[in-house]
């Protein structure tokens, strides 16, 4: 059994990543492989992970938090298995374990099919996703690690202020958490509800997290470790 739990986790490779590598190896070895579908490309991290449906319409404002909660809940989606699948999409390789958790691998990493993952300690992400699920709200990490190329694209599109190298996503200190079905299309009260839960969990962990929903450049899906630049 290999125990990576106490090593600097910046070298950690998740089982999902090993499965992806294996998938690519098998494809390479087989010249008859059909071209990658869009879905496969996204799964391989060749683009941001997709939502299950075309982007939802923006949510109308909720008058109360009860109403906001009702709009967020989707027990059917949580039970469908798609929610579970979403949890494995984002590339987490090299991300801070306080965000993504720590784990052990059981088995031989050179044989991804035989590797089982075992959480040593959940990170903020797991605690948050579980708490939201308990409330009936399906969420997932849409993006954790990000390439410099994609960061530049986002800046050009006006979706981020940071260029290549300037985003905490490139250094593993940030995570974008979105609704499984409605994506980013939540109203302010719904985001506030999510923001409140996320802050409560971070504070219970003694983790100094900053929420993009508090920024002037409103980015409520975004969470980052405060002072991440000093950790580079
Ligand atoms: Zn972000």
The proportion of residues forming helix, as a percent range, comes to 25-40%
What is the CATH T-level topology? Muramoyl-pentapeptide Carboxypeptidase, domain 2
Largest sheet properties: 4 strands, antiparallel
Class by alpha and beta content: alpha+beta
How many structurally independent domains? 1
Identify the CATH architecture.
2-Layer Sandwich
- Mean pLDDT comes to 82
Rg to the nearest angstrom?
18 Å
The poorly predicted ranges are: 1-12
Order of helices and strands: HHHHHHEEHEHEHEE
Q: Can you list the strand order of the major beta sheet? A: 3-4-6-5
End-to-end distance: 31 Å
Fold and architecture overview:
The protein is α+β, with helices and mostly antiparallel strands and 232 residues long. It has a single domain, classed as Muramoyl-pentapeptide Carboxypeptidase, domain 2 (2-Layer Sandwich). It contains 9 helices and 6 strands. The protein has a 4-stranded antiparallel β-sheet, covered by helices on one side. It has a two-stranded antiparallel ribbon with strand order 1-2. Helix 7 packs across helix 9. The chain starts with 14 loop residues before the first helix and ends in a 7-residue tail after the last strand. The model is unreliable at 1-12 (pLDDT under 50). The site of zinc ion (ZN) has 4 residues, from strand 4.
